[in-house]
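hey m, so remember when u said the tokens were messed up on ur end? i reran from scratch. heres the input so u can diff it against urs
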Amino acid sequence: MNDDLPANPWAALRKLTPARIALGRTGTSLPTEAQLDFQFAHAQARDAVHLPLDQRELTRGLEAQGHQVLHLHSAAPDRHTYLQRPDLGRRLDERSVGVLREHAKAHPDGYDLALVIADGLSALAVQKHSLAFLQRLREQSAVDGWSLAPLSIVEQGRVAVADEVAELLGARMVVILIGERPGLSSPDSLGLYFTYAPKVGLNDAYRNCISNVRLEGLSYGLAAHKLLYLMREASRRKLSGVNLKDEAQMATLDDNGSGKGNFLIAE
């Protein structure tokens, strides 16, 4: 070891983030270790996109939590079509529409809330995080008394498919848990999308998004807290999306218990 080498001022910062900073160089190229790490992360991201969702295992976990589960499929018949035709992933196939219509006939009064799980672009994220998140959500939402529709698992689904599920079930609110597009340091990031008064044809302006729900990102408890705030405010104000801001008060290390934790909100 050469003791004359200068200390790396970035070393302490690299311990605080998975971001690829201060990778060094060998001549005009990356060091071999950094290049191999990049290739490994890229392979993980590709694998996450193509990994199929284990619906049997997920269903067992959901039923153990007390959920009634409906198995649905988007209009995209397979993964190849799903990746090339995003529009088909936003709608249900005919069989799934029929399943929901039959269920709705037996429950004409509808529901307050529909929960949807879709594989999205990372079934790995759904497999790893959805059960733990839903457990925290149930714990925090027990006092609200909302009627809950059967939980729908949509294979080859995209975000907007939740609007059709909720509309067919007669639900006034819907939340979809979906695997987000994998990044080079986060192949298992779970996204939450919430819509009030869902119906087919709504665009993203009508939805609220909570992203990066995972152990290395936004914790399950904090994500559930943010989502419940949005749902309660949406129920009160009858809207969601760009007109509904996340103003939930979050405790921070330096607020001394005052509850004024969101420094982005003016007093």
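this time it looks ok to me. The first strand starts at residue 69 and ends at 73. if urs says something different then somethings off w ur setup not the seq
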